[in-house]
Structures are given as structure tokens and as C-alpha cells.
Amino acid sequence: MPVSELFDVVAARPRRKRDFQRTVDMLATLVALVFSVGVLYIARDILVPIAIAVLLSFVLSQPILVLRRLGLPRVPAVMIVVAGALFIAFAASAALTRQVSELAVDLPKYQTTINGKISRLRDLVSTNAVFEKGATALKSIGHLDPARPSPDATPSPLQSGGENIEAPVLVEVRQPAPSPFAMVQTIVGTALSPLETAAIVVIFVIFILLQREDLRNRFIRLVGCDDLQRTTVAMNDAAGRLSRFFLTQTLVNAAFGVVVTAGLYMIGVPSPILFGIIAFLMRFVPYVGAIISASFPFALAAAVDPGWAMALETLALFLVLEILVGNFVEPLLYGRNTGLSPIAVVVSATFWTWLWGPIGLVLSTPLTVCLVVLGRHVDQLSFLDVILGDAPALTPEEHFYQRMLVGDASEVADQAEQFLKTSSLIAYYDDVALKGLLMAEVDLKRGVLHEGRQEQIKETIMEVIENLSDHVDEPPAAVPEPAKRPYADLEDGPAAAPSLEIPPEDAPRPAGPRKAVLCIAGRNALDEAAAALLAQMLEKHGMEAKLEPHQMLTIGGILHLTGSGAQIICLSYLGGEVSAARVRYAIRRLRRRLPEARIIAAFWQCDPEKASELCGQTKADLCATRLAEVVAFCVAEAKAHIDSEGPISADPRGIELREEPNSALVGAA
């Protein structure tokens, strides 16, 4: 076997081992998931009450904490709150039962109104030319089958062998009237299941509220106590947030149901309490809950009123309430977003409804919120936050690099537009674009990014620069505190060098003939893409910048730089994994050809300590790790030259200029 093939086999073994281990882990996860779903389905009779009890414990924990702060012991506080909740539940159940009974008795009264509306609708359809032609076409299609008997034909008596057969005699089987004991047994059997569920819920609620601290400690022990401080803070924070969220949501939905009940009563819709309770429950189901709750009273209003005024008033009531609550009340109290992605809400509602029926539909969002919170605070369950949470699946720099790989400059520009609503363009380039290019540099060193893909990334960067050319590099107006800034969790990049500071917004900027800056790529097309970002920033800050590829650092390429009039040269390198000797020799050749130029070695997104070490080894005039540092230095250099030389001529447009043989610096107006 050749030596090269032997090396390939040896190198492939660890990867195969990793792939096999990954496959085993995926299969184990799949088996555990299937097992969990099976347990949830088989044990739903006991798990549904437990789930309801857990959610109710979150809702009731806040009133218990209020009573505890007032000095009441835990057991009396729990009993008072649970008794109050039971009283409210039984009162609502009694009102609901009465409303359902009255509605069932009154439904036959609305049959005439329903038949009249159906007749008018049928007459409307029959007089419509389009529907009439469609009905005629369907009728003609029915006559195409010769074996089909004509609807006008008179049925002939049954015959068999030429003899007539008598028609069969209808036989009706009647059950005997149920005995009083059987009726009682049926009623008790029907009511036993809800009462059994309610009893289990009450028992578990009391147990969870009384043993809250013990259950919390056991859960911490279960998920791991290696970092007890972090786990405790995370669990307390998660429990507090969930409790406040569910309590607030319950109160908002209850208020929504009360307003619906009052509104339907004023409109005249029968059984308003019934539909108010339905509206309260259905608002726990996002997106479609309000539609479902509005459909029942709308249909009843259409059946009660011979006209359509009552139905339209009912529809308007739900529409106005949902707009007010969804767009004003909920964002003000706890934020409109539940932390779930829209697709996760729909999938979870479908899943829990299939698993547990209608009660699963009501509990779907609260249960999914609990799973997402667990995923955010428990490392073993982090996949739940990725799958169900509304946080971006990719970080901004990962999204940037992923779009670079497919050459999608439009989506990158959209991302930048969102970022620029709260920050400056140079901050986007520093915190997102350069970090994304640094990921490309890592792939290049791993040997998975070929030259053609590098050129594609560079061309996409050029297109993004063109798309963002109209933006001024100035921070926008301050955003109000409650609004969350996009990408606000981005970490700051490497600290700027002590001698470099961003000039204030009112600092004078060069205009007219400008100081020449050469932005030269250090090694490859990725360095050239980073240099292109710097060139655009310098142009926006009044500097004359010229972009040069990495071939200009060769002996033949540097000859073309002689006489360019460049006063500042910036060498662009992504990261700190660069040969100091290579940079040093490039700087040495540049000094021979352009001895008057200041040379900046930019190691983008490099660690500050590593950058300082490279700066000492390469003999550069200055080293930088961020675009803001280089722009600040160049602007400061131009301003210092203007202040020292002073203007010698006046431009008719009001801009004073200073002319020199090889370069031109301008002063401020």
C-alpha cells in the first residue's frame, strides 16, 4: 500500500469513529423520544391531571408568596389560595352547566330562523347565473351513465324468475325503558371521570405547593449540581418568570372572558357566560384560539336573529377585543412574544391535541413554554430551546457566513438593515462581517474552503458593500429602553489600542482632495474582502482609499505602488494565525518603495495580546484588530496634518484646501 493511501486510512479512522458514535447517539435519542411519546399517550389519564396541577401551581404560587410576605405560614396560605381557586372553579362550572342546559332547551326555537336563512340562501344560489350553469353541467354529467336509472322512472316491482316478490317488512327494535337505577348509574359514570380528574389535580396542586422547595432541590440534584450557584439562580429565575407569566396570562384571559360575556349579554346573544368561559380557555391557544372562541357565538347569533346585525356585532366584538388585547394589553404587561417560534406553536398544538385531545390543545402553549425554559437552563435539554424557541438558530456572524457560502448578498443586506436600525455601519462590519469572515478563514485553514469558494465570498462581500453604499456611518437616534435591540447579546470585539479613539460625531472630516490610503490584502481573497470593508469605511469618513489584492505584496507588484502618493498603508489579515516573518518581509519591501508612508498591520478580530506580540515582531508602525481603530487613526492623521499645516487657499464652495506636491489634505469648512 502506498504511503499516501496509508495516511488517508489512518486519518479516516477517527472520523469514522466519530460518525459511528454520532449515529449511535442519534439512535439513542430517537428511541428515548419514541419511548417518551408512548408513555405520554399510554399514561395520559394520570399525566394530564399532573400537567394541569403543575401549571396551576405556577399560577397560584404568586398569591401564596404575597400571603407569606404578610406573615401567614405556608400551610394556611396554601389552603386559603387553593380554597379560593376551587370556589372560583366550582362557581364557573355551575354557571357553565346551567348555560349549557338552557341553550340545549332553546335550540329548537331557532330552527325556524335557520330554515328561513337556508331557504333564502338556496334561492339566492338558484337565481345566480353562474351557480345555475354549474348545477346544469353537473346534472348533465349524471345522465352520461346509461346504466344509471332515470330519476323520473317509476320503480318496478321486484321480480325473480318471472314471479313477483313481496317488499320486505320493516322491523323496528326498541329498547326497554331504563330503570331509575340504570339512569343513576349512567349519570354517575358520566360525571365520575371529570370528578376523578379534578380530585387528582387538587391533590397534586396542594402537594406541589407545600413541597415546592423540596421538589426544587430534587430537580437541581437531578439535572446536576456541579455548579450549584448557577443552577440555583437559573431554576429560581425560571420558576419566577414562569409563575409571573402564567398568572398574568390567566388574569388577562379571564378579563377577556368577562368582557366577552358582558358584550354578548348587551348584544343579546343567549348563554353569554358559556361563551365567555370558552373565550377564556381558547385564548390559551395562540393564533387560532380567538377564532375558535368567536365561531360559536357567531353561529348562534346568526341562528337567533332573522337578520345579520347580531352576528356582525358579535364578530366586531371579538375582533376589536383581540386587536386591543393582542397589540396593547399583552405587550404592556408581559410582552407579546411567548418565547416560542411560530412553527413550534403550531406543531406543539397539533402534537398535544393528538396526544391528549382537547385538553392538550389548551395546555399546548404552557407546556411548550415550560419545555423551552428547561432547555435554556438545563444543558442536557438544550435541544428543546433550539427546536422550539424563538431565538435565532444561528448567531449573526454564523448567518452572515452561511449566506456568504451560497452567495446571497440580498439576505445579508437585509440582516444589515435590521442591525443598522440600532447601531452604526462600522459596528456591523466589526461585530458581524469580520467575525463571519474569520469563520471562513478557519475553514480555509482546515482545507475545506477551496479557492473558487473564496472568490465567491469576496464577490458577495463586494455586492453587499455596494448595497450598503448609501448608508452613512453614524449611529441612529437612541432606541427606547423597553425595545430589545437586535443582536444585543453580541460580545464586544478586541479592545482598541490605547492610542486609538473614535473621533466624536462633530469632529471635522476631510473633504475634496483627500489623504490616500492603500488597503492591501495580506494573503488571499478573504483578506481582500476584509480590506474592501475597510476601504468603504474610509471613503465614508472622507478618506481616499484604494483596494489592492494580495499579489501587490510580491516584488513585481510593489513596483506598481511606487509614486502612488499613499500616505498610509493598511495590511489586512484575518485573525492572528499568520506568519510574523511573512508580514515583516512585506512591510520591509513596502518601506523601501514608500518610505514616507505609515504602515498599519491589521489583524482583524485577533486577541489583543497576540496582536501586540505580532506588532513587535513585524515592526509595523501600528497594529489594529478592528475597523474602528484604523478609521480613527486615519481620520486623526488627516486632522493633525490640517491643524499643523493650516489652509493656504480657499475653495469657492467654502472649503479651505492645503495643496502638496505628492498628496492633498483638506481642511474642514
Automatic annotation (TrEMBL):
Residues 143-162, 471-509 are annotated as: Disordered. It is a multi-pass membrane protein. Keywords: Cell membrane, Membrane, Transmembrane, Transmembrane helix, Transport. It is found in: Cell membrane. InterPro entries: AI-2E-like. The keyword Cell membrane applies. The chain crosses the membrane at residues 23-42, 48-66, 78-96, 187-210, 245-267, 273-303, 315-334, 354-374. GO terms for cellular component: plasma membrane. It comes from the Bacteria. Belongs to the autoinducer-2 exporter (AI-2E) (TC 2.A.86) family. This is AI-2E family transporter. It comes from Methylocella tundrae.
